[in-house]
Design a protein that fits this description.
The chain is mainly alpha-helical. It is 85% helix and 0% strand. α3 (33-61) runs parallel beside α6 and α7 (119-130) packs antiparallel against α8 (134-162). The longest helix has 29 residues, at 33-61.
């Protein structure tokens, strides 16, 4: 249960201000909310399942202390990445607007490609490497998937309520602070183990 809750919180925070949130808002202006969420959920579940598998393999091959230190450093890096910011470029925005056919397939394909190598995927790999055992890894997968879908659903809802006037600066600094806090905790744990 702790792997689920940690993954849910970390990935939710990681997704705040991410370009996939902007994609979710853009798709929501073209398609109904439920097909958009279904596409996001399917793509996220697949990408995060692969991320958990990679993380589990790394966790089994390496000792716990160095993995925890590497995870802490990775989360500090994610904090810096978050401060740098993510923007949806004109090409990505245009693709989201022009998407035709099944909304679920269009959104799912776009999210699958956008998440490959993204900080939420890398954070999921890091969390899986730090948690061993099938139950914990299942918790990481479920928590990371639900965390991302919840953050994107929030973006869609807030986008509809506030238009495009999201407080990006506050979201960016809050997410970076969350990553930095998780990174510092992991470093302390790794160095004292």
């Amino acid at each position: 249960m702790s792997a689920f809750l940690i993954s849910l919180a970390v990935i939710f925070v990681a997704e705040l201000g991410d370009k996939s949130q902007l994609m979710a808002m853009t798709f929501a202006t073209r398609f109904r909310v439920l097909p958009v969420l279904a596409g996001i959920t399917a793509a996220t579940a697949i990408v995060h399942l692969a991320s958990v598998a990679v993380g589990a393999a790394l966790g089994a091959a390496l000792p716990t202390g160095p993995i925890t230190i590497a995870a802490g450093l990775a989360f500090l890096g994610f904090a810096a990445w978050t401060l740098r910011g993510d923007e949806l470029d004109d090409t990505e925005r245009a693709k989201a607007r022009r998407a035709t056919g099944s909304a679920i397939l269009a959104v799912g394909a776009a999210f699958f490609l956008a998440e490959l190598g993204d900080k939420t995927m890398l954070a999921t790999v890091t969390l899986a490497a730090d948690h061993g055992g099938l139950v914990a890894l299942t918790g990481v997968w479920a928590g990371s998937t639900l965390g991302m879908v919840a953050a994107d659903a929030l973006a869609i809802g807030v986008g509809h309520l506030l238009g495009r006037n999201l407080p990006e600066r506050i979201i960016k600094y809050g997410a970076a602070a969350g990553f930095a806090a998780f990174g510092a905790l992991l470093l302390v744990e790794g160095l004292t183990a």
